[in-house]
Design goal:
Elements (H helix, E strand, L loop, with lengths): L17 E4 L10 E6 L14 H10 L4 E3 L5 E3 L2 E6 L3 E6 L13 H12 L17 E5 L4 E5 L7 H6 L6 H5 L1 H5 L8 E7 L3 E6 L20 E6 L3 H9 L5 E3 L5 H6 L4 E13 L10 H9 L3 H8 L5 E2 L25 H10 L3 E2 L5 E3 L2 E2 L1 E7 L5 H14 L4 E7 L1 H11 L4 E2 L12 H4 L16 H11 L7 H13 L3 E13 L2 E5 L9 E2 L3
Helix pairs in contact: 8-10, 9-11, 14-15
Length: about 525
């Protein structure tokens, strides 16, 4: 099965956020909420994708056992009661939850959702990220209770399993239905899909299980949602200004036009500036001296400013979704400092000698890297890749920039492996979600696409996983710092990415919350 990596939000599953309001306070019924996404989501099967755009669309279609409020409190979703340790959890379902065809959602259905992801045979990319491999669930229909047994200690078991998208029995029996967004438990159903153009969703009038004490008869709920696939941010901004979009996330310089118009927006931080090194056999990144030298050769502060158009900030962690369960700076004190002379000396000492043309080689093999540049992140990434290329060529490294779209990222990182350094950002909401990306099975069996094997990371992460929640933060921080110090996975600059709104208001937590959308009178 092909693995998918998300752009800007690899695994944004939990966390809280803030709200966006376009100004007017008068609510209006019967309206359509239209939002843009930069790429087609592809399959909408929530257990078989980690693509951020697919998970955003899926948020409209699939309910979750628990939800989180803007201040981080856990409230009822599909479940009305819950409790958890690091090894077990139980959820009692609300009464009256139904599927789009009227069939009831049972505890057995929910247990099957969880067990499917936990079963390694199903090769879900959420295994190891959101559900520990080997996790199982059982059901008691008499009490509407689902009991979960984690395959290994999980410090964030309640949040991880509780925010798993839940589908109906018919979808579990025929996953081709889920790929089309059917048989969900969420607030909306799919009415039309035109790939690479738009997805039209209709609100379920029988949906009554929104977060906490959410009421179905409140004013301003949209009757319809249209998700438009618009790769060009300039086009999206034009449509937003013309009133043809209700919301658009704008990472590039076009956001200045919207800020000048004083459009309301909600901002999210993401480690847009991230470097991951391929440590598989035959790749230069397998040599730690090469990895460190490549990082040392970069003025990361300047690179970050170019990447974020001067609007970013130095990264402290790959976990940027607020509230961060573990605070502290795992990057600054551990990332190799900018020092071109030291980088050159390190390569010399490691046996990578410059030839007549200035390109380094070792045992007849030239020091050449393929730099993977994601094209859908924004226009500044091209200039950033060229700046990185220039810096590395300055220390004798031959650099080929390889621009790739979303499908190309998936194919390259989790398929061909034909890359040496990746600029694809990875954003996490929990430190535990880093584990499968930085340890364990490599593609196609797992998502450790960098072939990372760091004993210090693995030991600290294992110890942290046995401690509930924030109690393990010291070890989680130690684990992430080890990766940065080893120059295996280096987040260096966060982008502050705004989502602008016009004619509506909503809350962004881990992603745009469909139940929070309220349409405003024009």
């Amino acid at each position: 099965m092909k693995r998918a990596v998300a752009l800007l939000a690899a695994v944004v599953l939990t966390g809280c956020g803030t709200s966006a309001n376009s100004g007017s306070s008068q609510l209006a019924d019967g309206k359509t909420f239209t939002m843009s996404v930069a790429a087609d989501p592809g399959s909408l099967d929530p257990a078989l994708t980690v693509l951020s755009v697919a998970r955003q669309v899926g948020r409209f279609l699939y309910g979750r056992l628990i939800e989180r409020t803007a201040n981080g409190d856990i409230v009822a979703g599909l479940a009305e009661k819950w409790e958890a340790t690091v090894t077990t959890a139980s959820f009692t379902l609300r009464q009256g939850i139904t599927c789009p065809d009227g069939a009831p959602l049972t505890a057995t259905d929910v247990a099957a959702n969880i067990t499917f992801v936990g079963d390694p045979a199903n090769k879900s990319p959420l295994a190891g990220i959101q559900v520990v491999p080997g996790t199982t669930a059982t059901a008691d229909e008499a009490t509407r209770t689902v009991t979960v047994t984690s395959g290994a200690p999980d410090a964030f078991l309640l949040t991880n399993v509780g925010t798993l998208p839940i589908v109906c029995a018919k979808g579990l029996a025929d996953r081709s239905l889920l790929a089309k967004g059917e048989q969900g438990t969420g607030m909306f159903t799919v009415s039309e899909i035109v790939p690479n153009d738009h997805y039209t969703l209709q609100r379920r009038k029988d949906f009554k299980w929104g977060p906490g004490d959410w009421q179905a008869d409140q004013q301003g709920l949209p009757d319809q949602v249209v998700v438009r696939v618009i790769a060009n941010e300039t086009t999206a901004v034009n449509l937003l200004l013309q009133g043809q979009l209700s919301a658009a996330t704008v990472a590039g310089p076009d956001q200045e036009r919207l800020l000048a118009q004083k459009l309301e927006h909600v901002d999210n931080a993401t480690p847009l500036g991230t470097l991951t090194f391929n440590q598989a056999d035959g790749h230069p990144g397998k040599d730690p001296a090469v990895r460190r030298a490549l990082v040392q050769a970069l003025d990361l502060a300047q690179v970050g400013k170019v990447l974020t158009s001067g609007k970013g900030r130095p990264s402290q962690s790959l976990v940027t979704v607020q509230p961060r369960p573990c605070t502290g700076d795992n990057v600054g004190p551990n990332v190799p400092a900018f020092d071109k002379a030291a980088a050159t000396s390190a390569l010399d000492s490691a046996g990578w000698r410059a030839g007549a043309d200035g390109t380094r080689a070792k045992d007849g093999t030239p020091l050449a890297v393929k730099l993977l540049q994601p094209t859908v992140v924004g226009p500044t990434v091209t200039a950033t890749a060229e700046l990185v290329q220039q810096a590395w060529q300055g220390i004798g490294v031959k650099v080929e920039i390889a621009p790739v779209d979303a499908a190309g990222i998936n194919q390259t990182l989790f398929g061909t492996g034909a890359w040496d350094v990746s600029m694809v950002p990875l954003t996490l909401s929990l430190p535990s979600q880093l584990v499968p990306f930085a340890s364990g099975p490599v593609p196609p069996q797992g998502v450790n696409f960098g072939h990372i094997a760091n004993a210090e990371f693995e030991a600290a992460a294992k110890q942290a996983a046995s401690l509930p929640g924030a109690e393990g933060c010291e070890q989680w921080n130690k684990a992430e710092a080890a990766l940065v110090r080893d120059a295996s996975l280096v987040p260096y600059f966060d982008a502050i990415v705004p989502t602008f709104v016009k004619g509506a208001k909503f809350t962004v937590s881990d992603s745009l919350d469909p139940t929070s959308i309220r349409m405003l009178a024009s």
